[in-house]
Amino acid sequence: MDIIQQIYKDISKDFANEKSDNKTDKKKTDSRKSMLFYICIFMLCTGYIIYTSKEKREKFTKLITNNRLMFFLIMILFSSYYIFYTDLSIIKQNDNKHKLKVAVKHALIALVIAIFSSLDLIIAPFFLAFILSYFMDIELS
Predict the structure, then answer these.
(1) Tell me: the pLDDT tens digits for 102-113?
(2) Is the residue at 9 inside a domain?
(3) Total number of domains in the chain
């Protein structure tokens, strides 16, 4: 009888842990949805600014028609995907894996800010950094 009660307690503990995991998963999903919403609004506003300004539109088309830049952007995206979504079994310590992922996040944000700079978008980097650091828990220190 004691064994049955112990099994029941273990199962109920696992079930309680599973419920708490579901709550954290829901919070993560809600956070991702709101981040996606704000990023979409940000992209729409930025796209509208680029579209309405002839000078910015010309700079943007010049950027996306630059084959060398597109090649390097594709390489950056593939390497970032590899770092974020593979096992990275080459790196033994979890701390180094985390540092690598944070460094890639910072580098991608810096790349987007550089693109905004080349388009003479002055306020956009502020909002981008705010949205991403708020929702992705990126600390710069």
Answers:
(1) 888 889 989 999
(2) no
(3) 1
